[in-house]
Design brief:
By secondary structure, the chain is mostly helical. Helices cover 62% and strands 7% of the residues.
């Protein structure tokens, strides 16, 4: 083989070697990309599986069965801003969730307000308002959400602009309340008024509430009782000493009953006759105002999304007018 042939052969060898290196690098990069893609896909699958497992556990624990998109949207607060679009709710879904939250708040208020007014027909307005708040106010909904296990699975982001509840609740707590409202709205969308009725009975009205504590009876309870009896055309209240002990000691106790005719309306105790009489009148008023109607059924006829959202728009308009009037 001549010198020229050797040189040509060497050049071909070098070229072949470089081509082989390029092929190896290309193959290695392709393998790495496939490995990375497989790893990412596996991670996404694992993430999806974890989310589905959490949702299944939540549904089993709470009895709330919703479609995956609606449940995910309801559990996602408006403060949540993901860095990736993978496996996350869209802006349209986020807007639908916010609409469900507003509607859910109205549904809860509508249902519980009607329930309280039907169950306690003679309760004064301030007592009705306070009792409804104790059932569906932010504090109450936070308690419901924690019992259902909402905090570990809800999605939100802490920020300085995050709203505070009327009771000054911290950020995470108010998010729990908002998520419960969104869940109720989603339940209405999928299951209608009957689904909301079932949720309210199971998780809201089943809670123990001291009804009498929501009555403001500190101001002239005897006068209030006298007026009620007069309106009912019954005999005026009369206080009678029932028992006493230690009248001449440093810690006497008196027990007084308040009557209308022969019917005892209430009973109270105190370290003086006046204190015992006041408590007896309060006791009589509590018995009167908290008189219950059994087996109350909230009417759901005529309940619609359009009506609820219209009422919300009216409330927002009134609020805006109030702000404008304050600034003018």
């Amino acid at each position: 083989m001549g010198p020229l042939s050797k040189s040509t052969h060497l050049a071909h060898s070098i070229t072949s070697f470089k081509a082989l290196q390029t092929l190896q690098r290309s193959t290695s990069n392709t393998v790495q990309r496939h490995a990375f893609s497989s790893s990412a896909a596996c991670a996404d699958t694992t993430k999806d599986s974890e989310i589905m497992a959490k949702f299944a556990a939540f549904s089993a624990r709470s009895g709330i069965t919703l479609s995956h998109p609606n449940l995910l949207a309801a559990l996602t607060h408006k403060s949540y801003r993901p860095v990736s679009a993978d496996n996350l709710v869209s802006e349209e879904s986020r807007a639908a969730s916010q609409r469900n939250r507003i509607m859910g708040a109205k549904l809860l208020e509508f249902h519980v307000l009607n329930y309280v007014m039907l169950k306690f027909p003679v309760m004064p307005a301030h007592g009705v308002e306070s009792l409804v708040e104790s059932y569906v106010g932010d504090k109450a909904l936070v308690s419901v959400g924690r019992n259902l296990g909402v905090p570990p699975i809800m999605r939100w982001k802490k920020s300085d602009t995050l709203e505070e509840g009327a009771a000054g609740l911290p950020g995470q707590a108010i998010v729990v309340a908002r998520v419960i409202q969104a869940l109720v709205g989603a339940i209405y969308q999928e299951k209608g008024a009957k689904g909301v009725d079932s949720f309210v009975k199971t998780h809201i009205l089943s809670r123990s509430v001291d009804v009498g504590a929501h009555l403001k009876l500190q101001v002239n309870p005897k006068g209030t009782l006298r007026q009620i009896l007069a309106d009912a055309k019954r005999e005026a209240p009369v206080s009678r000493l029932l028992k006493e002990t230690g009248r001449l000691s440093t810690s006497p106790v008196f027990i007084v009953g308040v009557y209308s005719g022969i019917e005892k309306l209430g009973e109270g105790y105190g370290s003086s006759m006046a204190m015992a009489e006041t408590r007896a009148c309060k006791n009589a008023l509590e018995r009167y105002f908290t008189k219950e109607i059994k087996d109350v059924k909230v009417p759901l006829d005529g309940l619609s999304e359009e009506k609820l959202m219209f009422e919300e728009k009216v409330a927002q308009a009134v609020k805006a007018d109030g702000k404008n009037a304050a600034t003018n």
